[in-house]
Structures are given as structure tokens and as C-alpha cells.
Amino acid sequence: MTSIYETYAAKICRHVELPPGTYDSQKLNSYIMALPLGEAHAALDKVELEHLPRLGDTLSLNDHMQVHFFSLLLNPARDLWEFTKPLLIKRQHLERLEGWRDWRTLSVYLRQQDLEPAAVFRNTPIPVKAGPFETVDYYAADIRVVLGRSTPFVWTG
User: Fold this and answer.
1) Which terminus of the chain, N or C, has fewer Cβ atoms within 10 Å?
2) Residue 74 vs residue 106, higher pLDDT
3) Greatest alpha-carbon span in the chain
4) Is the Cβ–Cβ distance between 115 and 24 less than 8 Å?
């Protein structure tokens, strides 16, 4: 049975069209981090950043990860860039990701698979109206998963 780590590493290798060989996590992570920012998806889809789903408010972290990570792993027809679906994250969540229960739950689960979630965002706040006289700062972001295994991955093609 193939692990989530191996399935994910193989998907990265296929996407980048790497020849068979041995690849360390750092090399494969560089491909994940080189994917376009989630903001690029919003621009291509002609979605104003203020109208993106708000993680933890209008969209749960679990639902986002089920659709934009776990289901992508199981579907070879879906491309790697789909992992970077844009969303908005509150400043308070970004400042204390490990203190956010949903993030901790995801982190603990992924660490058991030698994976780790990462929020990638531009440090430019987007004020979203929260009431008649109140705004809340959000950041356009995407959630990526990086590989954390110390042993290299053997890609057989």
C-alpha cells in the first residue's frame, strides 16, 4: 500500500516531468513552493480578493484540504497547480497558526505521514467589512503541503 507521502511525491515528480531517480524532500518542496500564488488563480478567474472564501469563517480548513489536497492526490487527471486554490485567512490565524485548533489537527495528521501544511501569503492586508463600522484584516493565501521526510524519495517513473 502506498503512503500519502509517496503518492504526493510521485504526483510532484509526474507534474514536473522528472526522470526516474532519487529526490530529496528539499528538492521536491522547491517545486511546490514555486507554484503560482493563490492570488494568480483569483486573477485568472476574475475573482476580487475580497470575495474569496474566508478560511475558518465561510470555509472550514478540513473542507478546503479535502477538496484541494486529498482528493487531488487520488485523481491523476488533476494538476499540481490546483493545490494552490486561493482563500482569505484572518490575521489572528496567521499570527498563531499552531494555536488554531483546526491547523493543529491538520498538522498532527500530516506529520504522521511525514508532511507539513504551510500557509503561503503576501503580507498585504485586505480589509473585509465585518459590520457597519468595522473591518477585519485578511490575507490572500493558499495552503500548501510540504514533504518532511529525511530519506530521499525514489521515483521510478
Assistant:
1) N
2) 106
3) 58
4) no
Strands (E), 17-157: 21-23, 54-55, 87-90, 115-121, 126-131, 134-147, 153-155
pTM value is 0.89
Instruction: Sort residue 90 into left (φ over 0), alpha (ψ -120 to 50) or beta.
Output: beta
The residue among 41 and 20 whose pLDDT is bigger is 20
pLDDT in tens, 34-48: 999 988 888 888 888
pLDDT at 11: 94
Burial 104-127 (b: 16+ CB within 10 A, else e): eebbeebeebbbebebbbeeeebe
DSSP string, 100-132: SHHHHHHHHHHHTTTEEEEEEE-S--EEEEEET
Q: Which residue has cell 494568480?
A: 40
Count of beta carbons in the 10 Å neighbourhood of residue 16: 16
Q: How far is C-alpha 140 from the chain's CA centre? A: 12
> Given this model, what pLDDT does residue 1 score?
56
